[in-house]
Amino acid sequence: MNEGRKEIVQIIFVFVGVLFTIKLFFVQVLDNRYADLANSNAILREVEYPFRGLITDRNGKLIVYNTPEYDLLITKKDVKDFDSAKFCQVIGITHEQLRERFKDYKARKAKKEVSDVKPAIFIRQLSNLDFARIQERIDEFSGFQIQPRTTRAYATFALANSMGYVSEITKRQLEHDSTKVYKQRDYIGQSGLESYYEKDLSGKRGVRFKYKDVSGIDKGAFLKGKLDTLSVPGKDLTTTIDIALQEYGEHLFKGKVGSLVAIEPSTGEILAIISGPSYDPTLLTGRKFSSNFLTISSDTTKPLFTRPLMAMYPPGSIFKIIQTLIGLEEGVFNYDTRFPCDKSLVNCHNHPSPADLHGAIQYSCNPYFHQAFRRIINQGKSPNTFTDSRIGLDRWRDYVSRFGLGAPLGVDLPSEKGGSIPSSRLYNRIYGEGRWKFSTIYSLSIGQGEMLVTPMQMANLAAILANKGYFYTPHMVRSIKDDQIDPKFRVRHETGIDTAFYTFVTDAMTDAISGTAPRALIPGMTICGKTGTAQNPQGEDHSVFMAFAPKENPRIAIAVYVENAGWGGRAAASIASLMIEKYVTGEVKRPALEEYVLRNEFGDRPSRTRAAEPGIILE
Amino acid sequence: MRNEISISNKMDWATVAIYMVMLLFGWLNIFAAVYDADANNSLFAATLDFGVMPLQMKQFIFIVTSLIIILIILIVDMRFYETFAYVIFAGIMFLLLLVPLIGKEVAGNKSWLGVGAFGIQPSEFAKFATALAVAKFIGSVGFRMDQVRNQVVLFVIIGIPVMLILLQKDFGTAMVFAVFLLVFYREGQSPFFLLVGIGMAIIFILTLLVKNNWILFAIIGGIWLIVIYLNRKRKIKQLIIITLGAIVLIGTMQSVEIIFSKLPLHHQKRIMVMLNPDSDPTGYGWNVTQSKIAIGSGGFAGKGFLNGTQTKFDFVPEQSTDFIFCTIGEEHGWLGSLLVVGLFMGLLVRLLFIAERQKSRFARSYGYAVAAIFFFHFAVNIGMTLGLFPVIGIPLPFFSYGGSSLWAFTVLLFILLKLDAHRGQVLERL
Question: What's the CA gap between B127 and B406, in Å, rounded?
Answer without folding.
Answer: 12
